[in-house]
Design goal:
Elements (H helix, E strand, L loop, with lengths): L1 H27 L1
Length: 29
């Protein structure tokens, strides 16, 4: 259970990073 929670949190963080990168590129172009 604890491992799943940590994995979920990591997944959310990664998604947020990817989203920020994509938005950054969109603003640049």
């Amino acid at each position: 259970m604890r491992t799943r929670a940590v994995s979920n949190r990591t997944h959310i963080c990664l998604s947020a990073l990817v989203l920020e990168t994509v938005l950054d590129q969109d603003l640049r172009f």
